[in-house]
Design a protein that fits this description.
Blueprint lengths: L1 H11 L2 E4 L4 H13 L4 E4 L12 H4 L9 E4 L2 E4 L1 H11 L10 H18 L5 H7 L3 H23 L11 H15 L8 H10 L3 H4 L16
Parallel strand pairs: 1-2
Antiparallel strand pairs: 1-3, 3-4
Helix pairs in contact: 2-4, 2-8, 5-7, 5-8, 8-9
Bound molecules: glutathione (GSH).
EC number: 2.5.1.18, 5.2.1.2
Cofactor: glutathione
Catalytic activity: 4-maleylacetoacetate = 4-fumarylacetoacetate; RX + glutathione = an S-substituted glutathione + a halide anion + H(+)
Length: 223
């Protein structure tokens, strides 16, 4: 019986619990798109009704009360990088981590700076605690992170963040630049980041998954 339920769940295909504007959800959308994986989107509106991520129903899916979460192959995953690495390990083509261990290391540095050193500091629940100074706060920490990323990327970048192959680093970079632009960070200080973002944003997998054109994007924010 259990195995029949599992087979049914696997047959359903992946479901992404996300929010159009969430940069971490966008990372997962890009990974699915790059790998050509079909999935269903279920919106968890972070603002409406005091935040749908805070409901008991969603807490059962992700106890951290954050998006994204993904049900896939009969399991539920949270944490965008864990989700992307699971997809990478189970659906390896096209690869999102370079074959060369040194380049893999570089990819992970970029991902970690963004996912641990920048994004958590401008998360909604952090900004709600900061209150009136939230824009300056977010600008400060994005600038601080980008000041570290710029010289690293200057060394590692080719066409994309690490050489000429799209990787998880690119998947993390573009949504973070989107957030920076929302908080009006002066991107002219970061020419390498800006150049990479401009190149990547023209690629279909990044374009089609942009926050401005998701099923839950409000009409006034649609591209
Ligand atoms: N480390 C997590 C972070 C997830 C995260 O911060 N999600 C944000 C949206 S990008 C969220 O759900 N925030 C809800 C809140 O602040 O209440 C990941 O990579 O998935």
């Amino acid at each position: 019986m259990l195995s029949r339920t599992l087979v049914a769940l696997v047959a359903l295909g992946p479901v992404l619990y996300g929010y159009f504007r969430s940069s971490c959800s966008w990372r997962v959308r890009i990974a699915f798109a790059l790998k050509g994986i079909e999935y269903e989107q279920k919106s968890v509106n972070l603002i409406k009704d005091g935040g749908q991520q805070l409901t008991d129903q969603f807490k059962a899916i992700n106890p951290m009360q954050q998006v994204p979460a993904v049900t896939i192959d009969g399991i539920t995953l949270s944490q965008s990088l864990a989700i992307i690495q699971y997809i990478e390990e189970t659906r390896p083509e096209p690869r999102l981590l370079p074959a060369d261990p040194k380049q893999r290391g570089q990819v992970r540095i970029i991902c970690d700076i963004i996912a641990s050193g920048i994004q958590p500091l401008q998360n909604l629940y952090v900004l709600q605690k900061i209150g009136a100074d939230k824009v300056q706060w977010a600008q400060h920490f994005i600038n601080r992170g980008f000041e570290a990323l710029e010289p690293i990327l200057k060394q590692t970048a080719g066409k994309y963040c690490i050489g000429d192959e799209i990787s998880m680093a690119d998947i993390c970079l573009v949504p973070q630049v989107y957030n920076a632009e929302r908080f009006k960070v002066d991107m002219s200080q970061f020419p390498t980041i800006r150049r990479l973002n401009q190149t990547l944003i023209e690629i279909d997998a990044f374009k089609a998954t942009h926050p401005s054109c998701q099923p839950d994007t409000p009409d006034d924010l649609q591209a």
